[in-house]
């Protein structure tokens, strides 16, 4: 390191000697030779290729092939979910509603959630179906010796029909149980829609904020460029040293890197957004406003709305109702079904046609379904606790999110109300003073930097406001690419050949 | 005591008959000079003669001579002998006789403190207070002073008077008043705590003493930060025996410095540097020129009451005698002829000279940084081509991209530019500056050269003096100056002043 440093100093000395001698060779006029200031560093790779006014990737245009990964149509409840992508959306200025519409049509988890409902209703259908009759051929006491005939075909040969008569409304309860589970899945589907829409909103605002941050980074770059030019002007008047000019180079290069970072971050956010939406766009611009359009929510409003209307909570409550039916269902399970049978055949002993009839019933002597009833009772009580757990979990998530929402709202509001106007007025007053030749330009540049920097902070806070506001107003639901949830946790009483 | 305006009104009415048609039909101010002779008034300022340039003459009623021992009161001259009493006009009297008493003391832009006789003493009432002073038109600065003025009003007495000064403190903090240079009983010296208890807010203290001195004195708060904030005023003592030779004009100028941030009006007395400079509470070009008649003997008393800066004071076009300091009148044998006098902090110097060179002459501190207000660096849009600050002001969310192109060949020279682009002056400011009679007929762009600790000495032939000071006639810009050039200079090489607008500025 030391060696490198001394080498660079040597090079600098050589450069200075060279430039001085060159200058003196070209301009022998006394009083006109001087060591020029250090040069402006070259821009980082990529910065000059990006046109601030044009698309970020000018060589990539939207085309037919952009949609080659379009998923096949999905049929839900007999109707085809529309899968069309609005190809007429302009490459510039996607709005939030564009993305919401696209997500409603293309996000796979919304389809999954709808399919969950269909699955549960199918189960309900199945569970309520009446058992089929049994048709039997019966040959009894084949080879029985009867008078006049030894080794007759049998005492009885005939057809018997057996039918199980379900008692205690078991089928009705089973169907109701699964219909209630379908109801749970409906709530879960709504929750999933919130998950997707909330994520679309949050990612949209994050993308929009990234886009505005990028614009401000470009303004800050212009300020840094002015700073570099100003440092050279000061240098030429003997009012800045070479190290000060070099510092302006460092500031300039950092501002350039900040622009590149902001551009990369914008692309990342846009790509995350289109992944969520479920389509395949190239990076384009977004348009919208980060300023909240509705009046702020109080914590009590947010909490009461959440506890009253949260889809997660409603699903849990619906699940409790389902579990009650499950318990009812298990409680009647021990009630014996009546199995009746009857038929007719030929009695080779009596040589006449006879009939058979029988009724059977299982005696609930040992197994009265005690264990499963107890399990269903436990499940019911578990679900009561689950509702409470969900309530508390929501409150816990809301506490953190609301705090972030409120803090960022307070900060963003005060930036909007006081700090930005003050920074603007400070900048304006210094500009006016500069116009009157009363202050130095570096002071104006400093105020300009402060103004843009304050705007940057405001945008970051507005992004927080909108992200958290979406959660607070959207029942704290996020995770738009997680698989849609089913109505029951694993291990529930479903493992029977016929769902009950 | 009549104010300056009352006095001017009196002079104007008293000399209406003499006004005549002087300068009537004078050429438009900024057009090339009219080569035709100018009609002159009769008798008031000499006669138009065959050379078309009127010769100045000693006014009727005065018995002084136009020339003594080779020194002429009407043209630049030295005299025949450095040992002569009249060398450089050393003892050449003014037009005013000694018997007429001392010439009235005039501190431009300042009032005099009234008094009344109470129990055998001239009683003055002096009130230290916070005041607002308009340094430049529109620039009202917050400073401390007395009786609503910064500097305070002038106390003017005669040698031998007994004075009583009732000081009532209207500042929010304690103060004392020091009578700078007086040999008075120690209890009235005004040194806080050393000689008296401080005067608390709302309270009064009575100073009373006999004045046995004569000369140039001043009073000021003896609290350092109040001094730095402007608490000072003249205390002039006229001699029992009028100083010989008598003068026609007796001016007083108090030079001060302040530091006041841009967009700020409150002076910062804690600063070690200074960016506003005032003469009698005004900054150039709002300082009021000293207007005298050609041939008069003039005294200028100059006090440096800057907190930390000495001032090398330079007068153009004349050589003056330093005839006194704040301590006392200097014996004539020790008078010094100078063009530049270094005046130290809390020092006063008296300059005396015969105004024998007509024209508008700079009178200023020669410190480069004092010849303007607000030294600012020249970098930024003002030295970039095609850039206007208005473009920045038009949009705060998107600033113009900086253009680093510097194709001005001047940038080949290290150090360029050195010329200060001086303070931007609004039309309203210009109108106020031009509205004063004392500046009528000066060259069009003169306000761009009189900045900071600068004022002008205008030496005018009597007829032009009359027109400028004693009439309300409209006088075109540049006309008086051009007439002086015509009479006393070389009109063939003279170029008139530029029109309004600052060269090289596109702000």
From TrEMBL, chain A:
Gene3D superfamilies for the chain: Outer membrane efflux proteins (OEP)
Signal recorded as keyword: yes
Signal peptide range in chain numbering: 1-25
Pfam family, one: OEP
Source domain of life: Bacteria
Keyword field: Signal
UniProt KW Zinc keyword: no
Family from the record: Belongs to the outer membrane factor (OMF) (TC 1.B.17) family.
The protein, known as: Cobalt-zinc-cadmium resistance protein CzcC
Source species of the chain: Novipirellula caenicola
Automatic annotation (TrEMBL), chain B:
Domain (Plastocyanin-like) ranges: 136-241, 271-379
InterPro entries in the cross-refs: Cu-oxidase-like_N, Cu-oxidase_C, Cu-oxidase_fam, Cupredoxin, TAT_signal
Keyword Membrane: no
Keywords: Cell cycle, Cell division, Signal
Region named Disordered: 27-63
Domain of life: Bacteria
GO biological process entries: cell division
Signal sequence range: 1-29
Protein name: Cell division protein FtsP
Protein source organism: Novipirellula caenicola
Phylogenetic lineage: Bacteria, Pseudomonadati, Planctomycetota, Planctomycetia, Pirellulales
